[in-house]
Amino acid sequence: MAVFTLQPTTTSFGAAYTNVNRIVRSLDVPGAAKRAGSWFGTWGTDVNVRSNPTTGSTVLTRLPAGVEVQVSCQEQGGTVVVDPYTNDWWAYLPLYGGYVTNIYLTSPDNQLPGVPLC
């Protein structure tokens, strides 16, 4: 399957990525199974996805600004401080096989609502 879109040239990569992802998620493909998890927006540029829920673990990839990511579970790990925020909760992103600090996810609380523990 291929999905093509036309978007204004002023659309950021993160916004275009999210727009296409929303279209694909909405498709009802016979025989396909939807992955369990909740979707959250991100903020920040080049947000690290790490192999474990600590800032000292290997960086697997970096997320562009403003994308939506699927979170399957969350757990406490290393404390991250991005002034004025402090958080030790990390979200597991199954599509990337790693963790991102909850600081960079759009949620009003340190722990993500409705997301189970890993």
Automatic annotation (TrEMBL):
InterPro entries: SH3-like_bac-type. Residues 46-99 form the SH3b domain. Pfam families: SH3_3. This is SH3b domain-containing protein.
